From TrEMBL:
UniProt xrefs under CDD domains: ABC_MalK_N (cd03301)
Keyword Ribosomal protein: no
GO cellular component terms listed in the entry, alphabetical order: ATP-binding cassette (ABC) transporter complex, substrate-binding subunit-containing
Protein name, entry field: Carbohydrate ABC transporter ATP-binding protein, CUT1 family
Keyword Methyltransferase part of the UniProt annotation: no
Keywords in alphabetical order: ATP-binding, Nucleotide-binding, Transport
GO function terms (MF aspect): ABC-type transporter activity; ATP binding; ATP hydrolysis activity
GO biological process: carbohydrate transport
Spans traversing the lipid bilayer: none
């Protein structure tokens, strides 16, 4: 087991493209660190530099007590699971899983035992004599993971290992990967573009954008205290609703479009820096789960009146897309591979109880969880706390 330390790591390609900027991260023994961010943010480049598959332009990389900038990949005592499997097509599943142990000249009986243990964990026991071409994509990925597990390395590196699995198996494998990693107690760096995967798996999550570290913290702290608008919009699904707002009457009231919310003392206690924004503009973040459908009896000072533009019934909840007369703050580069983080069905989205009777075109009053509002500087995007 070992720690991993990245100190001022940079990656500049020969064409001048600066892919990673001054990245400093420390991964402790046994810690599960997730790197997350939109496509092209540099997360896979970081992983490949740790693996030794990419040269480091500047900075220092340590694994344990060793500086490994110039150490060959095979001598770093790491195991990497790639997105594209990287299996040997002429070998059986058992031979693929045990190949690294064979290279170490481990006794055949011991290899077989370790392979069978890994296969049982990953649900591959009945496929051990098959060739990769006879397996589904999900089974091939599990073979690749088994090959890393049996090596018992000092560090695990995983590059979107679950991206080719179907949705049900992906959820199951998230728990399996986490359970295996905790049992082995090996420092793990896990790359994904899926922020739900990041939040459910990581001890800590590092959010990257344009090759720069935005924030590294526990999943809950990222959700509760995003350091800037980018992190606020990226973490959480559906994404945080962002609007231009104005603090009125010395900061006692918050105007969003034509509607006004009254801020309690608790809001100012939680955000003392708001005092400097009195009678000024701010960017307001409201999470979809911070909105609750209520009757018209709830005072307008605690709610927003909206018009429903789309209703998605998910069984356990409703996703209600709505419009209101407010200016939406859009972060066009906050996106994953499949959809923009900010909804396109209207100017906001609320996550509400399935018992609410609502349809497209309805007027709806949404009570705002005022004590869990987020505020950002309208120029810099930095969180106001």
């Amino acid at each position: 087991m070992a720690t991993v330390g990245l100190n001022g790591i940079n990656k500049v390609y020969p064409n001048g493209y600066h892919a990673v900027h001054d990245l400093t991260l420390n991964i402790q023994e046994g810690e599960f660190m997730v790197l997350v961010g939109p496509s092209g943010c540099g997360k896979t480049t970081v992983l490949r530099m740790v693996a030794g598959l990419e040269d480091i332009s500047d900075g220092e990389l340590r694994i344990g007590e060793r500086v490994v900038n110039d150490v060959e990949p095979k001598d770093r005592d790491i195991a990497m699971v790639f997105q594209n499997y990287a299996l040997y097509p002429h070998m059986t599943v058992a031979e693929n899983i045990g190949f690294a142990l064979k290279l170490r000249k481990m006794p055949k009986a011991e290899i077989r035992k370790k392979v069978e243990e890994a296969a049982e964990i990953l649900g591959l026991t009945e496929w051990l004599d098959r060739k990769p071409k006879q397996l589904s994509g999900g089974q091939r990925q599990r073979v690749a993971m088994g090959r890393a597990i049996v090596r018992e390395p000092s560090v695990f590196l995983m590059d979107e290992p679950l991206s080719n699995l179907d949705a049900k198996l992906r959820v199951k494998m998230r728990a399996e990967v986490r359970r295996i990693q905790q049992r082995l107690g090996v420092a793990t760096i896990y790359v994904t573009h899926d922020q739900i995967e990041a939040m459910t798996m990581g001890d800590r999550v590092a959010v990257l954008k344009d090759g720069r570290l935005q924030q590294c913290d526990t999943p809950q702290n990222l959700y509760d205290f995003p350091v800037n608008q980018f992190v606020g919009a990226f973490i959480g699904s559906p994404a945080m609703n962002l609007y231009k707002g104005q603090l009125m009457e010395g900061g006692r009231n918050l105007k969003i479009g034509s509607q006004t919310l009254e801020l309690s003392d608790n809001v100012h206690i939680a955000h003392p820096s708001l005092a400097s924004y009195a009678n000024k503009e701010v960017t307001v973040g409201i999470r979809p789960e911070g909105l609750k459908a209520v009757s018209s009896d709830v005072p307008r000072s605690r709610a927003l009146d909206v018009q429903v533009s789309l209703v998605e019934a998910l069984g356990s909840e409703l996703m209600v897309h709505f419009g209101l007369d407010a200016t939406v703050v859009r972060l066009e580069d906050v996106q994953d591979d499949e959809e923009e983080i900010l909804t396109q069905g209207g100017e906001g989205v609320a996550r509400i109880e399935p018992s609410v009777s609502v349809k497209t075109g309805d007027r709806l009053r949404l009570e705002v969880d005022l004590e869990h509002l987020h505020f950002f500087d309208p120029t810099t995007g930095v969180g106001i706390y």
